[in-house]
Design goal:
globular; alpha/beta; 5 helices; about 100 residues
């Protein structure tokens, strides 16, 4: 809602999206920014390759900025070695939303 109030068009693809749905979304809609959120560490523990795969995908789509946040991300952050996805703890930390 905060972002919409600033005039940004938003699309929610849902909680726990199916494999490859984030990639399909980006390729079809070509968004400027993708916000990913993990409220628990479960996505990192159940599928350790998921975030790395998304990071590799993000590297191949430099026209889209990818951000990852949420309580689960912040707890698991020290285990991540991301190249193209930026970890942020709040929307206020993302320059485009200031």
């Amino acid at each position: 809602i905060q972002i919409m109030l600033k005039g940004w068009k938003t699309t929610l693809i849902g909680a726990s999206p199916a494999p490859d749905s984030i990639e399909s979304f980006v390729e079809k809609l070509k968004p400027q920014i993708v916000l990913l959120s993990a409220s628990t560490t479960l996505p990192f523990e159940m599928n350790g390759q998921l975030v790395e795969r998304l990071d590799h995908f993000a590297e191949n789509h430099p026209e889209t900025r990818f951000y990852l946040g949420g309580a689960g991300t912040l707890k698991y952050q020290k285990h991540l070695n991301l190249q193209a996805i930026t970890i942020k703890s709040t929307l206020k930390e993302i320059k485009e939303f200031e």
